[in-house]
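Reading a protein record of the kind used here takes only a little practice. Think of the row as the fold of the chain written in a discrete alphabet. With that in mind, consider the following protein and its fold in token form:
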Amino acid sequence: MSAIVRLRRGLTALGLALALAAPAAAEERFLVVVGGIGGEDYYRDLFHRWTTTMVDLALEQLGFAPENVAVLVEQPARDRRGIARESRREAVEAALADVAERSRPGDLVMVLLLGHGTARGERVLFNLPGPDLPVEALAARLTALDGRTVAVVNAASASGPFVAALSAPGRVVITATASPAEDHAAQFGGHFVGAFAGGAADADKDGRVSLLEAFAHATAAVRASYERERRLLTEHALLDDDGDGAGSREPGVDPATGDGALARRTFLAAAPALGEGASAERVALEVAARGLVDRIEALKRRKREFTESDYLGRLEGLLVELALNRRAAREEGTR
């Protein structure tokens, strides 16, 4: 078997196991969904539909507690659940302040911005009814969430500069565009939301969609849409999760780039529970598996320190150990 084939098979097996490295200790999950100002009926309806779809998925499929979901839209009177507030800047900042007060280190906080964005000189904004939301104001609110796993998705046009402004350790930052010059209305948001409905985006078939899988699904769908319409692609999504402020268009493809590791093991859906009756052996196997995944991730980050054959040999050894662990866990689960 060639080294390349071994590497590809190894990475496929790794993808199936990486769910174990999700922040399983997270006690609570919080979601703040903001639908921006549409400017015209078509986009007003579109952003409202994307926003309410995400809320429906969070409450009906992803298992979020209702009190942990904040929804802000341009026209709250249209909200059939009756829980939406108007998406004015002060309301958005109040929602983030509330999450900061109620959440704790180890929790997961997701902030999703669906709408238009603009760049005015050096100022980059998410468009809201009334005063817009500058990236600096959002960054200031996120500082109160230190210690949480934070994911911020700005699915607006001209959103690229949000990556550098919001990047930090323990944080996933996704933007629909790569630069402020990409200022046409972005399609990314609808496809990103759609990634959590059904199983099409679940590439490793582990039963949950990671943020990395949702990003890959949305970028592929955007590209396909432009190709069908025979238009030049005018939005290039970015993902940063290694804290260096430089987003990647293809995170997770090249381990040496750094981006993708945290997004790969961050899920909106809760991790499957072992159950109260899990044996001590099963618990020990799960703990050992997470340790193996951490060692694999560490090896990937150090890839350039080894020759190709040495790297592949080390990776293969860890993957075999992980596969044996998973087989033992399945056997333990049938007893």
